[in-house]
Every structure is written in structure tokens, then in C-alpha cells.
Write a structure and sequence with these properties.
The complex is a heterotrimer of chains A (about 100), B (about 90) and C (about 90). Chain A is about 25% helix and about 35% strand. Chain A has about 100 residues and is an alpha+beta fold. Chain A has a single domain, classed as Roll (SH3 type barrels), CATH 2.30.30. In chain A, a hairpin with a 4-residue loop joins strand 1 and strand 2. Chain B is of the alpha+beta class. Chain B folds into two domains: about 25 residues; about 60 residues, Roll (SH3 type barrels), CATH 2.30.30. Chain B is built from two helices and five strands. Chain B has a five-stranded antiparallel beta sheet. Chain B is globular, with a radius of gyration of 21 Å. Chain B starts with a helix and ends with a strand. Helix content of chain C is about 15%, strand content about 50%. In chain C, a hairpin with a 3-residue loop joins strand 1 and strand 2. The chains are: A alpha+beta (about 100), B alpha+beta (about 90), C alpha+beta (about 90). Chains in contact: A-C, B-C.
Chain lengths: ~100, ~90, ~90
Amino acid sequence: MLFFSFFKTLVDQEVVVELKNDIEIKGTLKSVDQYLNLKLDNISTVNEEKYPHLKAVKTLFVRGSTVRYVHLSANSVDCTLLQDASRREAMAQAGK
Amino acid sequence: MVPILWYTHYRSSLNYFYIMSETKTDPTNFLSSVIGSTIVVKLHNGVEYKGDLQSIDGYMNVVLRSAKEYVEDFESKSFGDVFIRGNNGMYTIL
Amino acid sequence: MSSVQTAAQQEEPLDLIRYQLDEMVFVKLRGAREMKGKLQGYDSHCNMVLSDATEFIYGDRKEDVKVKESEMVFVRGDSIILISPIEE
């Protein structure tokens, strides 16, 4: 659940999603669910000349399992908070 | 006579199952009894890792200490500690 | 009772990753990729966030390496093969 909460804090931020098939999509993160499926708005493909088939698409739903990376801007992440949350999540997991 | 015989038979078979459950170990129990020894983990991609088993969990995630990576039998890399995600494992050699 | 106690004391593989929070790690990924970066967060699926990350993508020959930088990147756990601390 940690990264579900993490991505919720990134809603309305600009992100670049890199898929496992090498397509890179830049867009505004609109929503996220527990599977880390993502809804992106105002999208554009970073490598458009290679993958032109998303030119006409504005909004996209990305299945979480197809994601390889999500690139973020450094100032949109509170690193100390994320580290502490990771430790807390690990503690909670150990208690189970 | 017959019921008593049946009864003793029943009791001994219960004992049998009891002993079975005591000695039966699942793969992770077995591997945790072997912590500290040198093992080789082979991954689906064919790469092998040899090192001292430090810990293992139910996903078969492992941590190897002073591990070496072997690609096609040639040593290609060495690690102080390495965490290997369980889903990549094909088999473990002791 | 005693088994519960030993389970709590026992080191888990994911503990190694927890010790690496705020430290540089080396991550080997599927698709002949490697990544180095400072670990900022992780979960039990090995999903993780790395800061100041450098990605190395290896071609058919080990020499042709493509290098990519990212100031903050989320890596989905299912692509991860192994994680190792970077010793200085």
C-alpha cells in the first residue's frame, strides 16, 4: 500500500512513464489505484518518431503491470518521509 | 477382539502421521536449516550466484554474503551482499 | 511460542534492503539493464524509488552501453533481479 499512497501524493504532477515495451509517455498523473494502474492526462510520447501511434490520444489508462519506470521530478518527493514510511511498512509486514 | 485390534491399529497409524509431520519439512524450512552454508542459485536467465546463504523468506527471496556471479561458468562479478528476488530463482544447489 | 520469537528475531532478506535506505544501491533488472542510485523507498514487492539514478542498458555486445540519468525514478518490483549495496 506504500506506493499507492506515494502515487496519490503525486496526483496532478507531471510524470514520465516508461513501459516494458520501451514506450515513454509524458503526462499529468490524474489517478492511481492499489495495483498502481495509472490514469494520465495531456499525454505525449517522448520517443514520438519511434512510436507515433499515440499522437491522437489525450488521456490514457496504463495497466500497472506494464510499467517499468516512472520518472519524477526530485522536488515532488519528500525523501525523508518516504524513507520513514518504508521503515514503518517493513515493521508492519514483520508483525504479520 | 476385533474392535481392540482396530483401535490399536488406529492408534499406531495416528502415531505414524504424528512422526511424519515432525520430520516433514517444506522447502523454505529446509533452506533455513541450511543458513550459513555456501549455496548456488541459478536464475531463469541462466546466470548463477554462489555465496553464503544469509537469509531466506517465503517468497524464496535470498540474501547471499560474499557472492560471485557466474555467466556461462565464467566469474563475471562479485558482491559483498546481494539480495536476489525470489521469482527469478530456478533452483538452489547446496 | 518459541517459534514466534525466533521468527521475529530472524533476519529476513528484505532487511538487507531496509539497511540500504538513504544509501547507494546497485540494481540488476530484466532486459539487460542495471541501475545505480540512492534508495529512498521500497516495499515487499521490491518496488522502489531511487534518487540521482543512473541506468545502464547493455546491447548485444557488452561494450555498447546506453547510459540514462534520472533525478528521481520509481522502479516496478517485477523487473528486479537483484539488489546489492554499493561499497565505497
